[in-house]
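Need a sequence for this fold. Nothing fancy.
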């Protein structure tokens, strides 16, 4: 089996490493251009990340050194809900299970080093899907056609999609899944060891992701060994960029009055999910296929979920064996679309009780949560989600299957954080 992976960002590097491990007989070609940057701000992972490192037999100490990683014990929510508060969404079991904050660009290089793949540097000009006259898809690379059994498009937020036919019909809704559509991102030198320790109840945490509600959105703070990443997530139609910058830098000065800026930039995005994760032997993964704001650090968790589903299909798992290619595609797309909708609904729920701020952003986000449930998310997913909410009042037994990756403890802790 011949596979092509397009893009060396987080999705492309994870796919290359994961599939080279789990499909050892496959030949995998990775294509990327060093002229195309990645989002890599400093990322936070979830439980699947540590399992992934173990699966690849990557030593955690080596990972920490190479990616400037810090342990992540959970997410600290501050000022969400109707009154000032601090509450942690832990990994399970609390204070035992952890993930990491890490430098995304260094992770990419580490994973590629561990992958048994062929590397091709340069621009992929286009991707052509298989059709009735052409049984295999191909890419155009350096003006030459290269055919593959499957192509994995991990090209991210490219301005011009490599698959020219992609259009609005490929997304599940023309409405955004979530309201936030922009982030103002700042990195500073890390001189904040004491300031980033948190005393919550009887416990002291040396490394958490902070998610702090602000007037026009929310702020994340991600500490690495040598730098700290800040991001103010907001809607660009509801507040000016000057105001966002003013409030963000005010928060930074509270932590380090004489901070040294490494970088700053604006990232525009939309929360969406494609309806075609698989389209005629071309897979779309990562930000090429779906995106949700980083409130619960689901980006890497979902990429790993996509890769696991690709492995199931390509290894003829019992879920897919016996199905026609058309039925395989429908099953694959439905399963991942529903997973992304679970993520969006869980994140949207965080906004359901607003925050301590009575601003347009928070009022509209509360309204949008109910609109999501009524008009955007598949009714089966909404029903499943509501059964999980009912477990909080002990009127419903816990379902056997987690909601994406969240079980009763997650629902319980988030419910407390947004009360």
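Here you go.
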């Amino acid at each position: 089996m011949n596979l092509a992976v397009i893009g060396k960002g987080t999705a492309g590097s994870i796919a290359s490493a994961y599939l080279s491990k789990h499909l050892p007989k496959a030949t995998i070609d990775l294509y990327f251009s060093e002229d195309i940057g990645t989002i890599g701000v400093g990322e936070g992972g979830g439980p699947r990340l540590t399992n992934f490192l173990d699966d690849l037999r990557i030593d955690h100490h080596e990972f920490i050194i190479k990616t400037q990683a810090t342990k992540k014990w959970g997410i600290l929510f501050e000022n969400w809900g109707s009154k000032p508060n601090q509450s942690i969404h832990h990994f399970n079991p609390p204070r035992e299970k952890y993930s990491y904050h890490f430098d995304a660009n260094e992770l990419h290089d580490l994973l590629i080093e561990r992958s048994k793949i062929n590397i091709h540097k340069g621009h992929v000009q286009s991707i052509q899907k298989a059709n009735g006259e052409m049984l295999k898809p191909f890419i155009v690379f350096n003006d030459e056609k290269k055919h593959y059994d499957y192509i994995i498009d991990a090209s991210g937020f490219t301005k011009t999609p490599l698959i020219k036919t992609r259009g609005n019909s490929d997304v599940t809704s023309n409405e955004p899944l979530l309201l936030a559509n922009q982030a103002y991102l700042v990195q500073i030198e890390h001189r904040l060891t004491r300031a980033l320790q948190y005393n919550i109840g009887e416990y002291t945490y040396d490394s958490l992701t902070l998610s702090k509600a602000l007037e026009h959105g929310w702020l994340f703070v991600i500490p690495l060994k040598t730098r700290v990443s800040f991001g103010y997530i907001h809607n660009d139609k509801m507040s000016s960029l000057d105001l966002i910058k003013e409030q963000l830098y005010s928060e930074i000065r509270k932590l380090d009055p004489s901070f040294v800026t490494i970088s700053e930039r604006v990232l525009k995005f939309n929360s969406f999910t494609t309806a075609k994760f698989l389209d005629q032997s071309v897979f779309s993964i990562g930000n090429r296929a779906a995106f949700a704001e980083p409130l619960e650090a689901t980006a890497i968790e979902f990429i790993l979920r996509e890769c696991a589903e690709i492995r199931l299909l390509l290894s003829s798992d019992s879920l897919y064996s016996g199905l026609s290619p058309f039925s395989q595609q429908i099953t694959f797309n439905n399963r991942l679309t529903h997973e992304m909708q679970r993520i969006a609904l869980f994140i949207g729920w965080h906004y359901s009780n607003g925050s301590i701020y009575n601003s347009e952003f928070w009022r509209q986000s509360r309204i949008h949560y109910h609109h999501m449930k009524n008009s955007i998310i598949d009714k089966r997913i909404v029903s499943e989600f509501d059964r999980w909410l009912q477990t909080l009042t002990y009127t419903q037994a816990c379902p056997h299957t987690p909601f994406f990756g969240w079980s009763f403890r997650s629902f319980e802790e988030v419910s407390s954080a947004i009360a």
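For context: Confidence is low (pLDDT under 50) at residues 164-169.
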